[in-house]
Amino acid sequence: YQRRVRGAAFKRGNKVASLCRNYTFTAEHESLKDNLSKLIEKEINPHCDKWEKEQIFPAHQVFKLLGDGGFLGISKPVEYGGLGLDYGYEIAAAETFASINCGGVSMAIGVQCDMATPALAKYGSHYVKENFLKPTIAGDYVACLGVSEVGSGSDVSSIKSRAYVDGNEWVINGGKMWTTNGTQADWMCMLVNTNDHPNPHRSKSLICVPMKTKGVSVHRKINKMGMHSSDTAEITMENVRVPLDNIIGEEGRGFQQQMNQFQNERIYAAAGAIPAMDRAIQSTIEYTSQRKAFGKSILDNQYVHYRLAELQTEVECLRALLYQCVEQHVAGEDITPQATMLKLKSGRLVREVTDSCLQFWGGMGYTDDVIISRLYRDTRLMSIGGGADEVMLNVICKYMGIDPDSRK
Q: Is the pTM of this model over 0.70?
């Protein structure tokens, strides 16, 4: 993956967050980011405070704007409306989506682009791509992902939802939990048990389920600590019938497909978390340089500016791991261990950065009036969603050969 250092010198007055970024991006990447930034500043950010208060954003309206701009299928096949670019462009967009002033909207976009559709684009038949992928890329459909259930979160193999064959249809029963976009979605990429194979990794399939199908219901909208502008729902399904053709790829291979899909989700999440950390640090620099206490600015205290320098150093190390993952992913390599480490470190570091920065804002940081409090509550999900930290550690231990099962 081509690397071009854009030469940010350490000059007085430079923003800290600009010192080392963009070194993997070409002029074409920068053009995409610039066009997307303009759309975000004009069409999305002016409404974020309103959407946060309402605890929902108009997904169809926003996604149609993004779809018309070509931003929902950047690495997806051209024949289904995508741009057909490599995954590096997807990450350039993911970093730019992080400039949206509420994390819930960028998370919802991530579901649309990197969580509900990668397996569909890679393994799906022409039928499901034409009927689900194409309108999703266009922004005509809102997608959601159905994996977690009540009692089955990070332990994906333990899901209970089932589908059986009746004639030329799947009949689905069960439910899904923590479904982002769930109250507005047009279809769900649903992981469901489709056979009784004793190996739980071979008993599941991914099926495209239209959300307006009889038997699908939004059981409840879930109130959350953060990501307020994103709707999250518990979905129930009772004797839901969909065509057999709605399956993605081979029957019984859904678990493996979803594990591959998780890699995109984890890279996307990290690509958004890193700019959020940049923003937290930079906004804290700006605030503490103006706030006075005991005859000098808060920033003039050695502990404060040393701590911010320490945090930025950690962020730059994490950014290097992100771009390494992107490079390997574009080359077609298995990035499971690297993406898992990236997700783990991103979740832990963003907690450290936002907590430390909020502390320097004092009482103002504990209000809803400033960006740091929103970053603090929104990014806390990073260590939970898409696989909790503890699950990431378990995966890493397996690759290292140091978990108990590997040593038996």
A: yes
- Which residues on adjacent β-strands are paired with residue 18? none
As a whole number of Å, the end-to-end CA separation of the chain is 39
**Cβ neighbourhood burial of 364 (10 Å; 0-12, 13-18, 19+):** middle
User: pLDDT by residue (tens digit) across 24-50?
Assistant: 689 999 999 999 999 999 999 999 999
User: What are the pLDDT digits (tens) for 365-404?
Assistant: 999 989 999 999 999 999 999 899 999 999 999 999 999 9
Is there a contact between 403 and 393 (Cβ–Cβ < 8 Å)?
no
CA 120, CA 191: separation in Å to the nearest integer?
12
Residues involved in catalysis: 265
Q: 190 near 161, Cβ under 8 Å?
A: yes
Q: Between helices 254-290 and 336-361, what is the axis angle to 10°? A: 30
What's the rounded Cα separation, in Å, for the pair 123 and 100?
A: 31
Beta bridge partners, 292, equal: 297
Residue 378 near residue 372, CB atoms below 8 Å: no
How many CA atoms lie within 13 Å of 327's alpha carbon, on the beta-carbon side? 12
Token pair recorded at residue 75: 């690495």
Query: How far apart (Å, rounded) are the C-alpha atoms in residues 258 and 230?
Result: 22
